[in-house]
Each structure stands twice: as C-alpha cells, then as structure tokens.
Design a protein that fits this description.
The protein is mostly helical. The protein contains 22 helices and 8 strands. It is about 60% helix and about 5% strand. The protein has a two-stranded parallel ribbon with strand order 1-2.
Amino acid sequence: MTEQTPSGRDEWRRMLEQMLGPEAAEEAMRALEASGVDPEQFASVAGMPQNPQQMAAAMSQMRQILSADDGGASDWRIAHDVARQAAHTGGDPSVSAADAAKARSVLSVADLWLDAATDLPPSGGQQIAASRAEWVERTLPTWRAVAEPIATSVADALATMMSVEELPEEATAMLGGVDIGAMMRRLGALSFAMQVGQAAGTLAREVFGGTDTGLPLLPEPSLLLVPANLHEFAADLDAPEDEVWHFLAVREAAHARLFAHVPWLRGHLLGAVEQYARGIEIDLAHLEESVRSIDPTDMDQLRSALSGGIFSTQHTPSQEQALSRLETALALVEGWVEEVTANAVAPHLPHHVPLREMLRRRRAAGGPAEDTFHTLVGLELRPRRARDAASLWALVAREQGQDVRDALWSHPDVIPTAADLDEPAGFLDRRAFAAQVDQDVDAALAALLDGELGYEAGAAENDGGTGAGPDGGPAAGPDRAENDGGTQAGPDGTTGDGGSGDGADGGRD
C-alpha cells in the first residue's frame, strides 16, 4: 500500500503549528485562505525549501499576516481561542438548570446576610452561573487591558534583538526581504497574548467567581459563580457542600458591593496595574542571550524561544513603588472582604472558621490569582498583607463601628497605608493624633480670621506705631527715637537730624 503524501495544505498547517501551536494554527489558516492564498502551492515550505521562489512567496504572504495593522485584534482572537481551549482542558460541563438555580439562591441569601455586616448596599446587576468558557468570555477583555502594555514592551524588545544584518546569508536570502524586526515584534506580541490566554484559561478551571484575583474583572456590576469549580472544591472538604456554596457566594457578593459602591476603586486598581505595566523594562541582556542562536526560518526554534522565559523583567525603583501601592490596595480589598464575610456568615454557617482558614492557606500556598499575577506582571500578593489588613478592618469595626470602617473607603486619601498594615494595632491611635493636629490647626486659623488672637492689641503695643503724647501729639514708639534715624529736640527747641546726638545748643556734636 502506497503511503499518502501530505497535501500542501497539511504542510503549511504543520509549519504554522510549529510556529504558533495547534491552538492558533487554524486561525492562521483561515486568515491565509481568506486573503486568497492557496496553501497547495506551498507543498515544500514547512521544511528547507527546494524552490527559493516558492519560499519567497510564502514569506510574502506571512509578512502580510504578521504586519497586519489591526491594533492587536488578531492576536487577541487567537489568545481567546487559546484561553477557551485551556478552560476546556479536563472538561467544562455546561451549567445545569439545578446549578443555575442554586447559584441564584445562594447569591440572594448572601446579600441578605451582608446587609447586617456592612453599610455598603447590594451591587445590583445580574446573578450569573457561568461555565469555565463563559468565565473566559466575560473576563478576557480586562485581562487584555491589563497585559497589553507589557505585550508591547516585550514585542519592541524582541524586535531590537533581531535584525537582518545578524542573520546568516542563506537565511536572509530565504526570507525574501521580510522585515525581521517587524516580524519579531508581531510574533512577540502574539506570543505574549497567547500566554495571557493560556493563563486566563487555566485560571478559569480554578476560580470560584469573578473576583478571586481581587481585581474587578467583570465590566459591569454583577454576581458570578462557576458551579463546576465549586463542586470540585467542596468535594475535597469536610464541610457540607451547601455551606461551601454559601460561604463563597458571600465573598463574591462582598467584593461586588465594594467595587460597585466605591467609585474610585476600580480605576485605582486597574490604573495601578497599567502604570506598572507601561513602565516595565525588559532584561535585554537576558533576552539577547535567549535569541542569540535562533534561526527565524526554523519556526519550531522561534516558538520555543518566544515561550521559554525570555520575558524576564527587572524592576526600577518607580516600579517597586507601584507594586507596593498595588499590593497594599489588593490586600485592603481582600482583608475587608475576609472580615466582612466572617461577620456575615458567623450566625449561619457552623464551619465558617475552617472555611476561612482553608482559603487563607490556599492563598498562602500560591493560589491561581497569585500565580497569574506573578506570570503576567511580576506581582505577588503577600498573604501577610491580607491578614494584616483583615486585622486592621476588624479593629476599626470593633472600636468604632462598621460604619466608620466602611467610611474609610470614601476616598483613596483616607484608606489605610502600607505603614498602617505594618502595625495595624496602632492605626486608630495614629489617626486620632493626626485628627487632633488637624483640629488644632483649623482652630488656630479660625481664631486668626475672627480676630480672636488679640492681634490689634499686640499691634498697638509692639508694631512701632505712634500713640498720643501728654499734649495730644504723637508719642514715639519705644524704639523710634533711638533707632529710626529720626530727629531729637535739643534744650532750646532746635532739632538734630540723622539720628545724631545733639549738643547743648541743639547743634551737632
């Protein structure tokens, strides 16, 4: 039996799979065919070509794809497909009617319980029971916004490392005039977008709702649970599954209230990520070492290099400051949610304490949120910060009430700082001292404006002005006659000038 020779389309697909991976190859094939290219003409392209003209034609078409100026839309279409594929790994059961009803029920109960634990009202919006793929659909736009600035930095750095002058002569001829810098920039952006898609799809298999990362991933106020993940998580616990669902629903609803009713918080968090990302610096020395031996015509080598840790970053002092600010804000969010959830569920769930500790251990071990942040932006949310934040929020509520606790979210200038998290126990004393100083300053200013500091009397006595003499004329101030260069009367009524001493006859000494 004669072995069937692969078609030109199969050869072209194989090359694309080597470069982009199987998840994105189909998208690229559709793009080729939509542009009028017949893959059958490229039968030999995947390996070392026997026909240089044919390779040149293939690279010309690839150049059109890689230089497409669509604002990265094609990159993120591929990333979307990669994310959905990752979310489906291991199965992604559709949400049953029973699970959808259960999700709506526990989310409604969660809002009732939270009414007694916080002054922030319900978030409103939809109550959603999502599959893993639907979680990807709803959150990927935010992941794109978070990661795109880094993708741009990575792509630009990669382009600077590759130039046609550094390639072997035979490789340059084979590429047929392709702009290597542009191709590397395009492939760098595509590779990073695919990594984000892979991370988001992996996260979809582990998250419980839309707020596990501490970031507001959902564009509109809503409550979301992923039933498949709740089932898997509850199966490994001693607590009844219903309690697990209720506990996680309360956490989701608490996050949603915070993001819905603290208007500056969403922009503060996402803006901090963006500020960090836009200033990221690529370790060019490490990148150059990684791509030194890459032959861009060997698609397997190229894809391996792009996805093999060449995106190491180094933090500048400003980046470290941005990370500290972001970590503090995320810790405050997580600590508040943890404390409010504990208060809300305590009267209703017998296992609320072990469930709280289970989530703390999950976070300390490096849960999905921490791993994703570290992969994408180098951010690690330290568990100690979240614990300290929870202690601080608990202290404020215990000493001054939950209304004072929640009022601290009124403006970014009044929320606790990183220094406050270093010593939560002294937070109230420090705030009381600062408030007293402000009151003293305000009182002094008010008294000054109202004329209650005795300014007029002080001016009459001390400002060097003149008062009435015994005969009704002006009397010199205490320092006037001695120091102001005025005149003095002599015994005969004549005057001396220039502040000089007078002789007995009124003339100058």
